[in-house]
Amino acid sequence: MRLELNIVSIKDVNFGANTAIKDGVLQINQRELQELLEEDKRLGRVEIELAHPGEKCRILQTSDVIEPRAKIGESGKNFPGALDQHGTVGMGPTCVLRGVSVVTIDDSERGDFYRDMNGEIIDMSGPGAELTIYGKTHNVAVLPFPADGVSLSDYRLALKVAGLKTAVYLAEAGKSLKPDAIEVYEIPPLMDIEKQRKDLPRVAYVFQLFAAQFGGITEDPVLYGGNVDKIVPTILHPNEVLDGALISPYRGKGIETYMIQNHPIIKKLYQRNGKDLHFAGVIITIAHNNEHENRRAATISANLAKWVLRTDGVILTKVFGGAPEMAIAQTAQRCEELGVKTVLAMWQQAADDSQEIDTLFSFQEVNAIVSMGILFEPISLPHMERIIGRPVPLSGGGSISDKIDRQLQWIKGAIGQLGTSRLMASRY
Q1: What is the DSSP string of 312-353?
Q2: Dihedral angle of Cα 144, 148, 149, 153, to the nearest 10 degrees
Q3: Is 303 helix (H, G, I), strand (E, B) or coil?
Q4: Could you state, in order of their start, the residue ranges of all structural domains in the chain?
Q5: d(CA 18, CA 30)
Q6: Which pLDDT band holds residue 111 (cuts at 50, 70, 90)?
């Protein structure tokens, strides 16, 4: 399975008469894109706004971030099951617009999951922008409004589809262009690998991508257009992950679709494949809401790693929350019991009123842990001149456009679950 990402570098984005790319500038026909998205009868209307690096702009209530991509060739499917009909991804050419992101905005969580009514934000300048890649990309913000009588669940599904449609619509403009670079992802067949460097360890990645404790959308199209809330651990080719088989689940905090498309752990394993390790593949799993199911999933994941992928070691990541931390630690423990070495990369969990930073488990076997930061660390953000989204007055008075203190968890992409964070937690 050979995947080719044809990278078209975007230096600027603006609105214009036609959607096209010239000399690295993406021009968007705003009305045409709006009409495309408003074909979905679950949406009453859709607003499109642009935000650029360095601009004094703050985007509120961000739901997901997606890199514009479109398959090249008639057989290619874009986000199969979720957008296009079912089909194989992970092979053939895909057009990628690098330097631009689609940002979907959802304020329907007010008073529900979010304690901060303005949700996760993206600052386009200042210290907040330095913490996340989304402060450095040209962002196409999609603000859909539900049609009358549409249920909250249907609206949230429509929001996800609108983001995917926008990503494909934009990337279609680059399909006929000569790419600025081509990234190739391919794992040789197992028999060919064994003929080469037999001394190299086989390493797989265990990707926990959903937590049942947080609920979700009944028809959330996470994996090939289907919900994963009852899925057993499953092996995927890493190219499927990079090429649209997976999208971020609703409430996938710290796991944006953009980061799945550019998964840093998978990309790093590819870079080292054949040099100091053999990349064996990806096992996807979820965190259940009961002990029995979590232990069952841990056993299945470990068995797949040991006996099917025949790995010597695995890297594991978790989703947001304490129960998922216990679930992935149990998976690591079970792998270690089978002789598969583990490294667990994770956010540090701590109470927001506590200075203590620790893990929620204490398994002797799970002793290699990489910190990717702590959620509740505060940061001061400057005044912004422009707001995208639907601002809510701050509880202590003032406006979200003012100079504010913000916990890192409320800055989109500042702390990622997949190894994207530039931060780590330390105890002195």
Answers
A1: SEEEEE--SSHHHHHHHHHHHHHHHHTT-EEEEEEEEB--TT
A2: 0
A3: helix
A4: 2-181, 198-378+402-410
A5: 9
A6: very low
Q: What is the SS3 assignment for 297?
A: helix
- Greatest Cα pair distance in the chain: 67
pLDDT at residue number 112: 53
Which DSSP category does 108 fall into? Answer: T
C-beta separation of 417 from 347 below 8 A: yes
Report the pLDDT value the prediction gives residue 101, as an integer from 0 to 100. Answer: 98
Instruction: Give dist(CA 206, CA 283) in Å, integer.
Output: 5
Cβ atoms 285, 207 nearer than 8 A:
yes
- Residues 6 or more apart from 122 whose CB is under 8 A from it? 51, 58, 59, 62, 103, 128, 129, 132, 134, 135, 139, 411, 412, 413
- For residues 309 and 196, which has the higher predicted lDDT (pLDDT)? 309
Residue 286 to residue 298: CA distance in whole angstroms: 10
**Residue matched to tokens 């409430």:** 251
Residue type, 416: G
Q: Could you please report the per-residue DSSP string of 6-50? A: EEEE--EEEE-SS-EEETTEEEE-HHHHHHHHTTSTTEEEEEEEE
Q: How confident is the model at residue 321 (pLDDT cuts 50, 70, 90)?
A: confident
DSSP 8-state class, residue 305: I
List CB contacts of 378: < 8 A, sequence separation 6 or more: 405, 406, 407, 408
Rounded (5°) CA angle 406-106-386: 55
CB atoms within 10 A of CB 398: 11
The letter for the amino acid at 174 is G
372, pLDDT greater than 70: yes
- Burial class (CB within 10 angstroms; exposed 0-12, middle 13-18, buried 19+) of 293: middle
Q: In Å, how far are 196, 235, 330, 366 from 205, measured between CA atoms? A: 22, 10, 15, 16
Q: Name the percent of the chain lying above pLDDT 70.
A: 91
Amino acid 187: pLDDT: 87
CA gap 43, 104 in Å, rounded: 14
- Rounded to whole angstroms, the Cα distance separating 261 from 246 reads 8
